[in-house]
């Protein structure tokens, strides 16, 4: 840039020197002054052009940044909606699981009542003997929204508090709960081995081979009671976990409604 202005100044000096040379010294001084003035004008013009270009670039960058910001907010809302759907689905799953556990416990109570009171076997009891020996169901909770969130990057959600609640739930609360759930009322293989020879297996029903033998089978009775108590523990833990799911879901819905 400096070379460019020096070139302009030199050219102007040369042009001015081609005029009258009656007074060489004063003419050269005048040419020098005129050249400096013109260079100054060129400089102001060039600086003005540069400033306009810089301003234009900055405006373009601001517009581009704003457009990117708007796109990120669309993605943020999509992530929050998907996460909310995950929580809603998981709450439904847990509610359904609790209903199943309650049904299993109902069957356990029926079976224990029959055996403790040495009541006769009837066909309608077959389904209850089957359900009484089921410790729990397999719970699968949805995390697809969180996986999408991780792939886009945690900072896509601007609010730090909301972001912290979501990450803490999926990275800490949920894994701990799943581990605890898998441990409580896990299938006890020795009981299964003991149980198999006692029944004739039909479709979702069990018929005792010798009901009189079951009346006195304390091992069988003990484990039917243990499974029932284990299910009660699971129901208690699941109700607590549902409350935590609803709490974090409310945080997400509050953010969506802003």
Taking the alpha carbons of the first and last residues, their distance comes to: 52 Å
The number of distinct β-strands equals 2
User: What share of the residues lie within helices?
Assistant: over 70%
Percent of residues in beta strands: under 5%
Large-scale geometry: rod-shaped
Descriptive account of the structure:
With 258 residues, the chain is mainly α. It folds into 2 domains: 2-61, no CATH class; 74-256, no CATH class. 78% of the residues lie in helices and 3% in strands. The chain has 8 helices and 2 strands. It has helices at residues 2-17, 24-116, 126-132, 144-152, 160-183, 189-195, 211-215, 218-256; strands spanning 199-202, 205-208. Strands 1-2 form a two-stranded antiparallel ribbon. Strand 1 and strand 2 form a beta hairpin. Helix 1 (2-17) packs antiparallel against helix 2. The longest helix has 93 residues, at 24-116. The protein is rod-shaped, with a radius of gyration of 41 Å. The protein starts with a helix and ends with a helix. Mean pLDDT is 86; it is low at 19-25.
Which key features would you list for this structure?
3% strand, 8 helices, 258 residues, mainly alpha, two-stranded antiparallel sheet
How would you summarize what this structure contains?
By secondary structure, the protein is mostly helical. The chain has helices at residues 2-17, 24-116, 126-132, 144-152, 160-183, 189-195, 211-215, 218-256, and strands at residues 199-202, 205-208.
